[in-house]
Amino acid sequence: DTEVTQTPKHLVMGMTNKKSLKCEQHMGHRAMYWYKQKAKKPPELMFVYSYEKLSINESVPSRFSPECPNSSLLNLHLHALQPEDSALYLCASSQSGGAGETQYFGPGTRLLVL
Amino acid sequence: EDQVTQSPEALRLQEGESSSLNCSYTVSGLRGLFWYRQDPGKGPEFLFTLYSAGEEKEKERLKATLTKKESFLHITAPKPEDSATYLCAVQARAGNNRKLIWGLGTSLAVNP
User: Fold this and answer.
1) Cβ of B91 and A56 within 8 Å?
2) What residues of B are in contact with residue A40 (Cβ under 8 Å)?
3) A104: nearest CB among B46, B51, B87
4) pLDDT tens-digit map of B9-64
5) C-alpha–C-alpha distance, residues B81 and A87, integer Å
6) Which residue in chain A has the smallest CA separation from B105?
7) Residue A93 has pLDDT above 70, yes or no
8) Distance from the B17 Cα atom to the nearest Cα atom in chain A, whole angstroms
9) pLDDT in tens, A42-63
10) In chain A, which residues have their Cβ closer than 8 Å to the Cβ of B96?
11) Measured in Å, how far apart are chain B's first and last C-alpha atoms?
């Protein structure tokens, strides 16, 4: 089973709202990732968790706050977003976060900030 | 600087017309090359991982090959359902080796 699930599929929020994106995997992977993807661009890495610890933050603005409650779950808390944050947000997981590992992606959450 | 270039940007084929997509890379020590397929509005779907020059992998109508400078994704007798954007990414030995370096993708359209 190589499935990563994400909820919600679509989200519309105002600039003053607080919302959360959720990701879950049942592959026993110990590394999980958040990516942001704009139209006609490749995914852009935001955060990496390895063994439930934040190991990479790609200089993401503080209005994005990741959380890894356990090795199967990953959340992205959103607050005071800007319209330019509208994008497809992707979650991925891999074995342990080492080099050369295949990352498996979820279906994404389409976010629109008004 | 580590870089991945995919060509062509877009490709239109007739059903059954075989072709190849190219992924050229310059990295300081390859740790892995990855091919993904992405449908509009969906997450990338994993296709292949290649690790060393000479390696080949196949899945249905797709075959991926790797040399020291590039990878090809060969599509044999494509069907309309093969229409998608195909993304190539690499991991390099130096620096942050968990970060994928992506190409811009090849948008493939297969006409019936």
Assistant:
1) no
2) 104
3) B46
4) 999 999 999 999 999 999 888 999 999 999 999 999 999 999 999 999 999 999 99
5) 25
6) A42
7) yes
8) 25
9) 999 999 999 999 998 889 999 9
10) 56
11) 41
Q: Is the CB of B43 inside 8 Å of chain A's CB atoms?
A: yes
Task: For residue range B65-111, list pLDDT tens digits in order.
Answer: 999 999 999 999 999 999 999 999 999 876 555 689 999 999 999 99
For residue A24, the one-letter residue type is E
Q: Residue A105, Cα to own-chain centre: how many angstroms?
A: 10
Asked if A41's CB is within 8 angstroms of B42's CB, the reply is no
Distance CA B16, CA A43 (A): 30
C-alpha–C-alpha distance, residues B34 and A26, integer Å: 22
DSSP tally for chain B: helices H, then strands E: 0, 11
In angstroms, the Cα distances linking B17 to A1, A81, B8, B87, B107 are 33, 46, 16, 20, 16
State the Cα–Cα distance between residues B69 and A91, nearest whole angstrom. 29
Q: Tell if the CB–CB gap between B104 and A105 is shorter than 8 Å.
A: no
B42 touching chain A per CB within 8 A: yes
How confident is the prediction for chain A on average, in pLDDT?
Answer: 95
Q: Helix, strand or coil for residue A49? A: strand
* Per-residue pLDDT at B28: 82
- For B:19-38, CB contacts with A below 8 A are 31-32, 34, 36
